[in-house]
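Handout, section 4.2: multi-component inputs.
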Amino acid sequence: MAYVRFENISFSYGDNQVLKDFSLSLPKNEIMCLVGPSGCGKTTLVRCLLGLSRPDQGEIYVDDVCMFSSKRRINVPAERRGIGIVFQDYAVWPHLTVKENIAYPLRKRRVKREEIARRVQNVLKQVSMSEYINHLPSQLSGGQQQRVAIARALMSSDSLIVLDEPITNLDAKLRDQMLNEIRELQRNIGTTIFYITHDQRAALHLGDQLAIMDPQGELVQIGTDEDIILRPKNRFIFEFIGVTNFLPLKFIDSAYHLDLGGQMVPWPEEVPPEVGGGLPLDMGIRPNDITFDGASPIRARVRRSVFLGSEYDYFVQAGDRELRVQQSTLDATLVGVAKEGSEVGLRFLNPHYYPAVARGA
Amino acid sequence: MINLRKNRDLAAMEGRRFSLDGMMTGLSFVLLLVIVVTPIFMIVYHAFFYEGKFTLDLIVDQLTRDTTIASMWNTIKIGALVTVFGTIMGVFYAWLLGRSNIPGKKLMRSLFTIPYMFPPFLGAMAWDLLLNGRSGYLNRWLMQTFNLSSAPLNINTIWGIVFVEISYYFPFVFMQVVSALERMDPTLEESARIAGARQGKVIWKITLPLVTPAISAGALQILISSLAHFGVPAILGFSQGIFTLPTRIYSVIARSGGSFEGIRQAAALSILLVAVVSLALWVQKKVLSSGGYDIIKGKSMRPTLINLRGARIPLFVLALSTLVVIVVVPLGMIFLVGLVRAYGLPLIPANFTLANYQRIFTTSGTLASIKNSLVLSISAGIISMLLGTLIAYVVQKIKPKGTGALEILSVLPYSIPGTVLAIGVILAWSGSLRINLYNTLWIILIAYIARYLSFSMKTSSAALLQVHPSLEEAARTCGASHTESLKDITLPLIRPAMVSGFFLIFLPAMREVTTSVLLYGPYTRTLGVQIYSLRDAGMMPQASALGSVAIVLIIIINAVVNTLNKDRRGV
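Output:
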């Protein structure tokens, strides 16, 4: 059941068309992560949803209420859309205390004083900030301001909250912690969350569903984390979502060969005919989809190995191509760690084939 | 949960709603048109058009008079000298108090900014009392002591004017440079030292070029202020027939007794003064073309201090004596002469009396002048603060078409001399546009607002830049209308800046002479005008007593401002 619907949204700044016929549906009571590189139009979409920017074309529905429609000339003002937002810079008002910040949406809705006090207490408990109720934002750390912003968003709406790059300004450890807390909060309250980020890792961490935008502002793929990682729809998503190796495949003597720079090795895997067909290809592979196999005809030399605790990270040289290989520590103890300088054979699991692009891989 | 009371935005999408933003934009343009553009237009019109026809006769006529040429030349000469020496003095003391290990730095720094709030015309008065060619106290003492037949020093000269103006205008450069030196990244100098440059070379090759933008900004302020300055040349120059353009304009108006011909001549002279100011600005831009440095940071850092070694004490004495000469002597002179029974009597306790104070507080004219100044400064302060903030909001946040024009219009009066502005206000608001405000407080108020609007506009602009748009947007999404978000979020956040904008206007308005001396009527004398006229009428002790009252008022208000600024909440 779609809770929020964007239908054919178009938006441009002057001549710069940011969004074109953009459509997206958010399922109710789930976390939807909208992921895309900087400047792809994510924030513009959020601003349209909140009523802070006005799309040129299209329609926006929240819970089947029309918030915006260019055709029907509807544009509900921001203050009446009832959507909670956490901005990237938190936008916690520096002249108001934590309590006043959080109570503001309720005050604007003319909620009774005792009711406000009760709900502020409540929400502060949820974000574990109860002891800071009378602090000013300047007395809080970044993470704490973040929680205040989330609490305030929860006050604006308990059904839909938008988080626009909310953890970018925090350090790595706090980031993980906040993601877990947001996840936990969503489970407890059941809010629909629209999470906007350029950080695919945070999105994978948090989202029930991921929607991925390309730099042109097109929606490329929607799916669960598994869909996105295991079945990326195109090369952009494949590259965007994690570390990748690309190796060129050449069609020589009616068979594909791996081009290792001067040296051609027959490609042992089957290339699906719909992508192959004799054209040159780029084979994309994740570091953890490469395994060491002494019997493999594809030979390489280990140049460097880095132990990262949960895994080993290798830089291996095959012909004149350098590849990243990851081996989980468990595998390493079973199969043995590859020494720097030793020769290994490589096996490629789950390769992805894309039409070759101009040299570089 | 979403309450669609009624869909007002159906109309908004067709642009029919009477929007708050549109209203504020429109209001800003109208106000600037009335307050700023009208007087400027009236001057240009009357200088170049006579009975509806374009003519250069008036300008040519003025330009062929020796008196005009002489006063133009004086204006330029004084402006140039004051700028050069004031800048040198400002930079030197800024460096000495900002970067050396001279003793008593903190106290001296605040003492060095006193001349900034002290009205220059009172300083001129004090020096006139001391060093007047005929009757100055110091001159007479020197003549008696050394049996001289004529006064050894004469303040009523071009150099005298230059000296007094420097002592009140050098703080412009001083304050700018001190703060630039404070915010400068000390590693820049340290790396030059590490690279092998000697101390002197670092100052000359690194420090000085880095603070050049601050120096040129301060020098520009000195130049504009000096070219447009009325008080000092009026007090020191009139008796010797030394005129600058602003004082010439004043005397033309005063002599003509308010006739239209006189005002037209004044308009022509005003055009010349504006031309001189523009020329000076252009020359200064050529000479001091400063690139943009981003090396000076907003953060305060702790720069290394330079050890003066043997020069420490002599330089300390030099700084101290400078303070004595520019602050203590004039202040003391005003206070003492305010106490003396009759001008010319020796300044000894036997001759002291409080009668002057009694007289100024019992004369209705004087009391009225204090009241007028208070009323004018407070209302000009409040109105300009509100208008300036309104315009700043339109320029910074709404950014409509024509933002640039709006910004230029609001800061334009800052570079237009007060005298010129006064002439424009007379031409615009004394009947020719069917509104006659002449001889009322309103006309002075309009002139003050035009003159000081840019002050509050600048402080509010800077504060609004600090208010990130997401703060207001967050309020909107929390259910606040545009008006409510302004009231609840933006205004409280810029309130401190608005308050300091008010005082930035209130203080100079309290001691204003330049425009009010041309606009006052029988019942609308201001404090400055009253002091000026008492002195003009030869009542030196009373003028000094009233001057003392003005100084005390200014000091009290300053102290109040400083304590107010200290306990601000959060932000």
